[in-house]
Amino acid sequence: MTSIDVQGVSKTYRVRGAGSIDALSDVSFTLSSGQTIGMVGQSGSGKSTVAKILTQMERPTSGQVLLDGEPIPTRGAALRAYRQQLRMVFQDPFASLNPYHSIRHHVERPLVLSGVVPPGEVDAEVHRLLDKVQLDAGVVDRRPHELSGGQRQRVAIARALAPRPALLVADEPVSMLDVSLRMGVLSLLSDIQAEDGLGVLYITHDLATARYFSDEIIVLNQGRVVEHGSADDVILRPQHPYTRELREASPDPESFFADHVGGVR
Ligand SMILES: Nc1ncnc2c1ncn2[C@@H]1O[C@H](COP(=O)(O)OP(=O)(O)OP(=O)(O)O)[C@@H](O)[C@H]1O
Ligand SMILES: [Mg+2]
């Protein structure tokens, strides 16, 4: 089992001419393999800052992040190894894939860099990964612009899974997709999470899908954790007024279940 511990993390951005912004204040939580945590909050609440700190794109101003009890490495081979353990799926499937490279290249590269399979098995592994994200083998020689947004996001998921990570951070992975494609991609992520025993941090504005796909939910408001509990408790019995506000502002979680899964879970 792999766990990442976020302990009392704060992040202050200094903005030239505009003072500073406290993007995160004293945020703590643990994400372990085998579980999905939904992280919700309004725009600007600090969700992506959490993702950036987990992937070491940003450093905390104070506090620390531990992987299995050890501080996460800040450079070199150890940082590369860490980044294979914790992978990221970004919001924008149009910007996150390189338009000049084939789908094969996107999935092959992390396989080669991580060395998880011997060179002779890379091609078979590319096909296994594409099959895992339910893409037809025929896409390998195509380029990103020849695929739909939903297909591109499946490529991004295959690429994230290539080094066989224990943990996945998905920052609003479906918010830029056509509404009709969202459930398919989220269900795929959820199936893979269960199959591979991944730990997933699912960042979203959408309380209904956060409840449906997560074991626990963390609510962020202005950089602080205002609520953290089991998904049902947070949505059905919110303790904090901000969570109630969010709930009122979102489509009714109950009707979401009626529409998508034929009733309340
Ligand atoms: N590089 C940066 N420099 C200065 N301020 C930043 C930077 N990145 C984020 N911020 C600020 O930090 C706060 C948190 O931003 P963050 O992107 O984490 O929010 P978010 O919850 O992901 O929002 P959204 O739902 O819109 O994606 C915001 O006030 C934002 O303007
Ligand atoms: Mg964000």
How would you describe this protein?
The chain is an alpha/beta fold and 265 residues long. It has a single domain (3-260), classed as Rossmann fold (3-Layer(aba) Sandwich). Helix content is 39%, strand content 25%. The protein is built from ten helices and ten strands. It has helices at residues 47-54, 76-85, 103-114, 122-132, 149-161, 179-196, 207-213, 231-236, 241-249, 253-261, and strands spanning 3-14, 20-32, 36-40, 62-67, 70-71, 86-89, 167-171, 199-204, 216-221, 224-230. It has a six-stranded mixed β-sheet with strand order 6-7-8-3-9-10, sandwiched between helices. Strand 9 (216-221) and strand 10 (224-230) form a beta hairpin. Helix 4 (122-132) crosses helix 5 (149-161) and helix 7 (207-213) packs across helix 10. The longest helix has 18 residues, at 179-196. It starts with a strand and ends with a helix. 38% of the residues are buried. Bound molecules: adenosine-5'-triphosphate and magnesium ion. Adenosine-5'-triphosphate binds next to strand 2 and helix 1.
Quickly describe the structure.
The chain is of the alpha/beta class and 265 residues long.
Mean pLDDT level: 92
Helix segment count? 10
Largest sheet, in brief, is:
6 strands, mixed
CATH class: Alpha Beta
Order of helices and strands: EEEHEEHEHHHEHEHEEHHH
Strand residues, percent: 15-25%
Rg result: 19 Å
Give the number of DSSP strands. 10
The chain-level structural class is alpha/beta
C-alpha end-to-end distance: 28 Å
State the strand order across the main sheet. Answer: 6-7-8-3-9-10
Give me the CATH fold name: Rossmann fold
Question: Which ligands occur here?
Answer: adenosine-5'-triphosphate, magnesium ion
